[in-house]
Every structure is written in structure tokens, then in C-alpha cells.
């Protein structure tokens, strides 16, 4: 498949997160259950550096071209210097760190944890943990667009915050989907977000609480297949919005990645199936590439692990298929 490359030296265990640099279209971080974060240059297909942790890493992100962050089961918040390859410990949560985002406007790292807090960190300050905010449930996913932070929690709860005033959420919502939230991504245009559940469904939501805006929200079935008259349903593991066209990609445990236009409510493309589930996807900053983490996600337990393929990370070249119909730009 010449429209994509497979990265050399992938992680040895399941991929937890793939994240691109906000400024360099060819720089990628990959966190893994093998207790590492790996930093790749996809233009040359080389692993530039590797950062070891004490337990599985669940989340990573960039702040700028030369700094990354990571967190996971060992509860430590780490800053990764991508040039010197040094690791700086910023502090701890009291349980696993499940997600993280960096606000370039506010220059803060935001981490979410199973300890039911969201915490703000400033790596340059002497007191690096700036604040901690209690939540009613464990944090499963977070995403950030402009000043809006969406936090997806256990019990299908959602909090929407303005990160400039974190004393209370701007909105609290319950998921439109009946099953556990597995995926979350904010729209590139800042109008709303999409969520995916373990039961093969995606919901498209809008921030504006007015009835007119709320009328536009909808949900649909996906990542399903009928095999020999039996309906198979897979989790939606990851979602990512295109930075220019605001269409979005979804990835599932069925090993497929699809592109959707939520305005026309249509699927624009389904890419050829991968050999294993897809736990994480990300578009790069100029929207020309899609990173696809491919690895076993334990739906079949120990039995499935015995026959699972080795984890892989693919980088797809993105073409016209991500453009909405009638795009004028």
C-alpha cells in the first residue's frame, strides 16, 4: 500500500496513543503499554529517541517542537525534552493518568486521571502543579479546542469547562450514547465534539446550548459488520478531526478507519482494514498525514493475545477524501 508507510521500530506492546507535533508535520509521539514513549520523524522513518517509564504509558502530547509530556499507570507526570532526551518529573496524580492536552494559549499542561481530578501544570514555574479540580468520576478522555475543555468520565458523564475559569463546569451533560465512552475529539472549528462508545456508535454534539444548535446533534452506528447473519459490534476506540476541513476520522476494534462528514451526515471513505484493532489515530498539523496505531486491544482476552500480531504504527498520506462535498475553503 504505497499511500502509507509502516514505522520502523514500533512499540513491543499495544499502542495507547499517537500524537503529532503542533508545529512540525513530521514529528510524532507514540505511547505504549510497553512502558515507553517513542519520538519519531516520519519523514525519514526513524525513531529519534525513546523514554522509559515504570509502567504502561496511557497518554502523551507535545507542547512545542522540542517538548513532550507523558503519563500512565505509574501516576507520574513527565516532561520529555526531545532534544536532550532528558525526563523532568513535574509531579504525581494519585491514580493512573488517562489523558492529557496542552493549551498553547495558556501555556499549561492539563492532565486527567482515574483519581477523579483534572490538574493544570506549568513546567516553567517553581510550583509546577498550578491547580487540581475534583470531578464526580474517573476521567477516561479529554480534548481541548481554543479555551474549551471537554472531559469524558465513567458513568457516561461529561463536563465542559472554560479553562480560564475552572471553579465550575460551564456545562454538565450525560452521554447521548447508552454505553461506556471510549473516544472523544473536539471539532477543529470549536463548535462541538464527537464521542464514540464501546458499542459501535458515534454521537456528534454541539457546545451551544440553544435549542437550534442542540437540534443538530445526532448519533449513528458504525464499526459493525454482519458475518454469517450474525451482527458483530466493535468499540469505537478513537476519533480525530481534520485540522482544515473539520471532517473526522473514526477508528475501531474491527481494524477499520473511516472518514465522516458530520454536516452532510455521510461517510466519505473507509480505508482498507488493518490486521488488528486500531486504538489511536491522529492527523498531523497540516492535515496531510494520519497516524494509525494498530495493536491488540484485549477484546478476546488472553486467548486473543496468543495469536495477536505485533503492534504497528502506520502513517497514511491523506488526499481529497477528507474534503466535504462542495468545499470551497
TrEMBL record:
Each WD repeat, start to end: 90-131, 229-270
PROSITE patterns to which the protein is assigned, alphabetical: WD_REPEATS_2 (PS50082), WD_REPEATS_REGION (PS50294)
Pfam families: WD40
Highest taxon of source: Eukaryota
Keywords: Repeat, WD repeat
SMART domains associated with the record: WD40
PANTHER family, per database record: MRNA EXPORT FACTOR AND BUB3
Protein name as catalogued: WD40 repeat-like protein
Source organism (scientific name): Dichomitus squalens
Amino acid at each position: 500500500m504505497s499511500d502509507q508507510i509502516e514505522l520502523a521500530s514500533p512499540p513491543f506492546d499495544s499502542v495507547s496513543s499517537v500524537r503529532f507535533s503542533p508545529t512540525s508535520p513530521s514529528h510524532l509521539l507514540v505511547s505504549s503499554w510497553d512502558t515507553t514513549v517513542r519520538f519519531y520523524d516520519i519523514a525519514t522513518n526513524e525513531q529519534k529517541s525513546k523514554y522509559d517509564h515504570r509502567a504502561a504509558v496511557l497518554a502523551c502530547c507535545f507542547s512545542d517542537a522540542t517538548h513532550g509530556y507523558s503519563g500512565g499507570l505509574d501516576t507520574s507526570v513527565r516532561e520529555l525534552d526531545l532534544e536532550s532526551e532528558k525526563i523532568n518529573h513535574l509531579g504525581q496524580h494519585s491514580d493512573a493518568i488517562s489523558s492529557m492536552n496542552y493549551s498553547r494559549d495558556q501555556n499549561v499542561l492539563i492532565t486527567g486521571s482515574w483519581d477523579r481530578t483534572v490538574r493544570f501544570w506549568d513546567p516553567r514555574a517553581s510550583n509546577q502543579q498550578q491547580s487540581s479540580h475534583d470531578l464526580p468520576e474517573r476521567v477516561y478522555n479529554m480534548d481541548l479546542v481554543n479555551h474549551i475543555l471537554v472531559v469524558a468520565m465513567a458513568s457516561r458523564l461529561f463536563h465542559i469547562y472554560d479553562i480560564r475559569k475552572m471553579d465550575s463546569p460551564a456545562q454538565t451533560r450525560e452521554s447521548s450514547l447508552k454505553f461506556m465512552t471510549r473516544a472523544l475529539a473536539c471539532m477543529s472549528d470549536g463548535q462541538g465534539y464527537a464521542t464514540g462508545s464501546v458499542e459501535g456508535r458515534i454521537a456528534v454534539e454541539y457546545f451551544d446550548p440553544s435549542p437550534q444548535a442542540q437540534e443538530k446533534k445526532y448519533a449513528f452506528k458504525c464499526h459493525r459488520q454482519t458475518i454469517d447473519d450474525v451482527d458483530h459490534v466493535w468499540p469505537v476506540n478513537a476519533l480525530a478531526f481534520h485540522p482544515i476541513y473539520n471532517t473526522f476520522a473514526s477508528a475501531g476494534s474491527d481494524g477499520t478507519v473511516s472518514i465522516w462528514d458530520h454536516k452532510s451526515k455521510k461517510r466519505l471513505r473507509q480505508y482498507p482494514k488493518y490486521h488488528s484493532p486500531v486504538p489511536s489515530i491522529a492527523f498531523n498539523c497540516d492535515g496531510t498525514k494520519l497516524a494509525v496505531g494498530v495493536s491488540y486491544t484485549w477484546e478476546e482476552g488472553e486467548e486473543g493475545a496468543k495469536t495477536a500480531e505485533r503492534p504497528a504504527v502506520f502513517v497514511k498520506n491523506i488526499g481529497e477524501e477528507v474534503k466535504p462535498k462542495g468545499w470551497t475553503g
